[in-house]
Every structure is written in C-alpha cells, then in structure tokens.
Amino acid sequence: MSQHDSIAALLSLLHERQNFLVTSHARPDGDAIGSAVGLMHLLDAMGKDVQVAFADPIPLIYGYLPGVKRITHNLPAAPPDATVLLECDSIERSGFARIDAGLTINIDHHKSGRRFAGFNWIDPEASAVGAMIYDLAVASGAGISAAMATCLYTAVLTDTGSFTYSTTTAKTFALAEHLVASGASAHEVAQAVYFSNPPSKIRVLGLALNNMVLEGEVAHAWITQEEMVRAGAVPEDCEGVVNYLIGIAGIETAAFLRELPVAGGELEYRTSLRSKGSVDVSVVAERFGGGGHRNASGCTLPGPLDAARTQVVAELHAAGRGKARQPV
Question: Is the pLDDT of residue 328 over 90?
Fold first, then answer.
C-alpha cells in the first residue's frame, strides 16, 4: 500500500470511530510525546473523544507542549473504539501490561517496526512519527493549529537530532517551515528542549564523560546506579549524553550505557547508540533485541558492566567494518 493509500485508509478508520486512546512507548522521548499530543489535537479538531496515556512520566522539559497536561498514566475505564500506538513494535512496548484496545492502529517510522496491529502504517523513510502525523493532519483537511504545530515541530526537531540525521531531507525543512508558519516558535521550542536542563542532568553528563573510553572510531561511556544517586538524577537526565560522544572528531559510532537494577540483584544496561551515518547502528541494536534508526537506536544489555561494554563495542567495530556478526 502506498503512503497516500495508507493515509486515506487511516482517515477512513478515524472518521468511522468516536472514542480513541493514544499512547506510545515506555520512557517517552520528544517524538513520542509531541506526536501523541499532536494527534490528540488533530482528533479534537475532527470532533473525536480522545485520551492520551503514557505508562511512564513525561520529562519535565516537555511541560511547555500545549495540551500536555491532558496526558494521564491510567488507561480508560471502558475500552475505546480504537487505540493508536505510536513508535511501538507491540502493545507491550507501551509499558502497559495489558490494553483493552478496540481496533489497534500502529503508526511507526522505525526500520524495525512490526505489523502487529489491526491497521499498520509504517514508513521508514519518515524523519519522525511527528512527520507522519503532520501528513495525516494535512490530508485530513482539519488544518494545523498553533498548538498542533508546536507539538509536531518538537517531535521532528528532537527525532532528527536537531535536523542533523540522514533522515533530514528537503521535505523535512518544508514541513518545519509550514509548522513555524502555523504558529510553532522555533526559538521557544529550542529554549525549552535544549536550554532548560536541571543541574542533575549536567552532573550526569560530567560523571558519564569521566567514564568515557575511545577505541578507534568507537566511543563509549556509562553511568552506574550509584553515580545516578550521587547526582540526584532521574532516568530522563541521561537523555542526550550519547550525542556528546558521537560529536567527537574521528568517532563514527558511540554507545552510552545506563545501569539498571533488576529483580534478583542482577544488572542490566540501557544502551543508546549513535552513528554519523556511515554505520547502521539499528543493526547492532537489533542483535540485542532492540531497534531504531540508522543513526540512532537503542537496546538493553545484560550485565555485568564489563561484559556489556565489551559486547556492544565489539559489535560497533564489526558494523564499522561492514561485517555481519552473529549475536553475542
């Protein structure tokens, strides 16, 4: 099905139903939140009843988004007519153990996206899910309000690495221009996202960079749970640390590992991967059960720390040489 046909079919489904639940993946980022709230505004404009629910807290830096306070962390008491899952490869990826979903609608732009829902619209060429919601809004004829524009601009800005990833095209800039013309303030969004960090986030950055190791074209760093406690940090404070690693001259791939305590005293490491474009880090993430984009992906590795570091660095080196490796 072409993208045009997918949008037309999805709009038909939306028009046929009244009550909607919108959600996205656990540990939500700017694209997940901006897209979900942007879709909420679109469904509002279409005269629909909509609830947006996330299993995990919304990072404070996204508190400026118009309508973000409507987000709940509880599922509706009665099953909706349809549930829209953004950037999820399964219902479980939302972080909710179970959803009484009605019709499930899957909207995703990850190459690793799975067709698990009743209706699936997956576009790996899209720069962000926010860009897909933008296309849906334009096709709907409902118009782009200033509130929707702010949400979708945030989604695209953050998921393109501030318009630096290879998914950024002329179409991306045309979209951004239209969103700004529709009322999004590029300056205010940038101030909120990039220049409103709590002190704990800067402490985390310092501790992580103190652990940095450079090995040829691969950089990696980590932070332990003890260091997180010492910094007075929360998980969202780790967002963006990996971008400092990939910003080093001569580095082609980077990994940042955050230690997680799990049941039984074992440790896991939430791992963010980045590439300057010559290496597809989504392939590496998929080897460890994760996924994402060519330039930005993630996965979770079992501990101990030294084993996790060794495994992911070895896979990044192998990917850089263009050699396929079996999972470790």
Answer: no
Residues 6+ apart with CB under 8 A from 187: none
SS3 127: coil
Query: What amino acid occupies position 187?
Result: H
Q: How high is the pLDDT of residue 114?
A: 87
The single residue listed with the structure tokens 């709940």 is 72
**What is this structure's pTM?**
0.88
Question: Could you confirm whether domain 201-320 is CATH 3.10.310.30?
Answer: yes
| CA gap 58, 33 in Å, rounded | 8
Residue appearing with tokens 């986030």: 201
Which pair of tokens denotes residue 139? 């096709």
Structural domain boundaries in the chain: 3-194, 201-320
Checking if the pLDDT of 324 tops 60, the result is: no
Identify which of 225, 244, 241, 237 has the alpha carbon closest to the alpha carbon of residue 303: 225
Superfamily of domain 3-194, CATH level 4:
inorganic pyrophosphatase (n-terminal core) (3.90.1640.10)
Could you report the per-residue pLDDT of 153-171, keeping only the tens digit for each?
Answer: 999 999 998 998 888 999 9
Both tokens of residue 20? 């909607």
For 124, what's the count of Cα atoms within 13 Å in the CB-facing half-sphere? 12
Helix (H, G, I), strand (E, B) or coil at 297: strand
Quote the CA–CA distance of 266 and 232 in Å, as a whole number.
22
